[in-house]
Amino acid sequence: MSKIKENKEQIWIEKFDCFSITGKDRKRFLNGITTGNIIDLNNKVLKTCWLSPKGILKSLLEINCLENTLEVIVFAGNTGEIRKYFNDIIFPSDDVLLSETFLITRLQQVDEISSWRITQPIFLKNENKQYDFYKNNPNLINTNDLQLWKINQAIPSLDHEINGKNNPLELGLTDLIDFKKGCYLGQETISKIRNVSSLKQEIRVWTAKDKVLNIESANNKLYNNQNKEKSVGYITSFYKSDSQIIKGLAMIKRKYLDQENSFFSDNFGQISVDKSIGSTFL
């Protein structure tokens, strides 16, 4: 990976699905669905989670609070599934209206030492002029570096870390949950896990030590050694950079995290694991 200089921020631009929620009940409605405090959100962007009733992460969202509108940016998730659920739970008495889905251009400054969650993004409205200006900016992060940066940040993606199994606490997204707000979807399970400290696994960034790449193997499990004596977790995603660096994300059983940081994969050989920059596992 061509390193992003620590004293120089680069620009990340990407398009995401978005839809608007209007109506006087918009904040109350969204507050009961997501993990963040929407009620107190005024003129800023909030990162939040949409969970299943059992507390499993289904989508990572950003809520852009405008004067009379909430823009829901689908940062990671299935837009159709989200919209269907939202529409299905709107009661006739609710003053809530969802717009059609549209694409929104999101801009954020990034570096290699800070979490992606500390910087407020910018959403470009006058796209023709603004987008062209930033797209040609010499500080624009290239596609290769962006993919590796996202892995180092442990940003979850649909069908990989968002796979119908993992909860936001395991994915290092604890700070996106307001434990003091009222009820929200999945609250009971999340509160129980937090109160009894019962996390069984945590997300980790991994790097292949060798140049072994056996993608044909269907086994995504991680083992404590080449003899595969114990299964310690499983790989959720990976990326091979132009410079042949192979990095990815994995869910590791907590009881093995303090013992060592080197494991074995049929696909990638010996790998080393580390905590991410962007999760709460710092």
Describe this structure in words.
With 282 residues, the chain is of the alpha+beta class. It has two domains: 143 residues, Gyrase A, domain 2 (2-Layer Sandwich), CATH 3.30.1360; 83 residues, Beta Barrel (Elongation Factor Tu (Ef-tu), domain 3), CATH 2.40.30. The chain has six helices and 13 strands. Strands 1, 2, 3, 4, 5, 6 and 7 form a seven-stranded antiparallel beta sheet that branches. The longest helix has 10 residues. The protein is globular, with a radius of gyration of 20 Å.
Descriptive tags:
282 residues; alpha+beta; Gyrase A, domain 2; Elongation Factor Tu (Ef-tu), domain 3; 2 domains; seven-stranded antiparallel sheet; six-stranded antiparallel β-barrel; 6 helices; 17% helix; globular; disordered N terminus
Care to count the β-strands? 13
Low-confidence region ranges: 1-7
Distance between the termini: 21 Å
Strand content: 25-35%
Number of helices: 6
CATH topological fold name of the largest domain = Gyrase A, domain 2
CATH class of the largest domain: Alpha Beta
Q: Could you give me the name of the CATH homologous superfamily of the largest domain?
A: Probable tRNA modification gtpase trme, domain 1
The main pleated sheet reads as: 7 strands, antiparallel
Shape: globular
Tally of discrete structural domains: 2
Estimated helix fraction: 10-25%
Q: Topology as H/E string?
A: EHEEEHEEEHHHEEEEHEE
Second rung of CATH, namely the architecture of the largest domain? 2-Layer Sandwich
Secondary-structure content class: alpha+beta
Radius of gyration, rounded? Answer: 20 Å
